[in-house]
Amino acid sequence: MKKFEIAAIPGDGIGKEVVPVSLHVLNTIEELHGGLKFDFKEFPWSCDYYLEHGKMMPEDGLETLKSFDAIILGAIGNPELVPDHVSLWGLLIKIRRELEQSINIRPAKFFKGLQSPLVNPKDFDLIVVRENSEGEYSEVGGRIHRGEDEVVIQNAVFTRKGTERAMRYAFELAKKRRGHVASATKSNGIIHSMPFWDEVFNDVRADYPDIQTASYHIDALAAFFVSRPQIFDVIVASNLFGDILTDVGGAIMGSIGIAPAANINLNGKYPSMFEPVHGSAPDIFGKGIANPIGQIWTAKMMLDHFGEIELGRKLLDVVEDATNDGFKTPDIGGKASTIEVGDEICRRLKRL
Ligand code: NAD
Ligand code: IPM
Ligand code: MN
């Protein structure tokens, strides 16, 4: 019997609607499998928690999380009540950094049953490896003047270690896929960090002579995601470029509500965190119409992480088949509710 202790943080907004659905799916898998056991412990850390306690999680929150095998997170953010930089740096970004989840992997592919907005939605299947701990997301900088001459400086921080780590991960992943890595750069405009990024990319690729490579400026690359996504296999990107690209990845599949992600701790010291690409979607929260597929596909990435590859594949097949048969939330052109889609997926899993 394989037993996993999992911390679940639904967070804010639709995180509270889609996380329970993904736990329902995982409980169904557990019932059917026999050899797997998930123990979930839920934590209410969120903007509501902040309003009550003045912080996003307790002082020992990170210590508590360290004892789990994985973390499932919905989304954080209720900007009407708590400024985003306070809530996100107080919980999501803090966990990513302190638990050394240095890589964020975010796939996008042609998804059965979805109306992609692409003019020619030929099969595409790509994965973005996003550097997840440094780059443009940095605390270095500050306000150096106020008033009429107000100046704010935000420094980007790129270490050789962090940059190389993301790139090596991308090359190793490409070895198991179609053998191609594209680098997202902007060395024509950003004169320190991006020429450095290119330099590290050149150094790393020399160690992988069998992998084909290409380098694109991020602006052109974003356009190619829309006009010819089928040319990509693995894309390695800095923290911010990877963030932006992966919302585009969701959109070309048909909705950012289906896009999955995994924050991976590579050194095995701490748990990895499974959290979809989308946010707390305050505009649809409470209506029961959030698409649960992003969170469910993210759970599939957790199964992969636990070595349950075949189970993960079956789960994704079931989700695609249910979508193809019309069980869809409004963002992808359907009328079903969050819970109805989840229930249908569980029903189909039981029929396997
Ligand atoms: P968002 O992803 O929450 O929403 C963007 C648009 O996509 C909205 O119209 C929303 O309704 C739609 N959408 C998103 N997920 C959906 C789903 N599952 N089903 C159907 N439609 C969906 O991005 P935003 O509006 O920029 O951010 C809202 C809040 O979420 C902010 O506080 C932001 O900081 C936060 N955020 C958190 C995370 C996270 O915790 N991982 C990620 C992104 C944004
Ligand atoms: C994401 C989100 C976060 C990020 C925000 C909410 C800080 O957009 O996970 O994609 O930029 O990493
Ligand atoms: Mn994002």
From TrEMBL:
In which family does this protein belong, per the annotation?
A: Belongs to the isocitrate and isopropylmalate dehydrogenases family.
Q: Which cofactor does it need?
A: Mg(2+); Mn(2+)
Q: What's the protein here called? A: D-malate dehydrogenase (decarboxylating)
The family database entries (Gene3D superfamilies) matched by this protein are listed as:
Isopropylmalate Dehydrogenase
Which reaction(s) are listed as its catalytic activity?
(R)-malate + NAD(+) = pyruvate + CO2 + NADH
- PANTHER family in UniProt: D-MALATE DEHYDROGENASE [DECARBOXYLATING] (PTHR43275)
Keyword annotations of the record: Lyase, Manganese, Metal-binding, NAD, Oxidoreductase
Enzyme Commission number, as recorded: 1.1.1.83
Enzyme class name: oxidoreductase
GO molecular function: any one? D-malate dehydrogenase (decarboxylating) (NAD+) activity
Show where the Isopropylmalate dehydrogenase-like domain sits: 5-345
Which InterPro entries would you find in this protein's record? ICDH/IPMDH, IsoCit/isopropylmalate_DH_CS, IsoPropMal-DH-like_dom, TTC_DH
> SUPFAM superfamilies, alphabetically?
Isocitrate/Isopropylmalate dehydrogenase-like
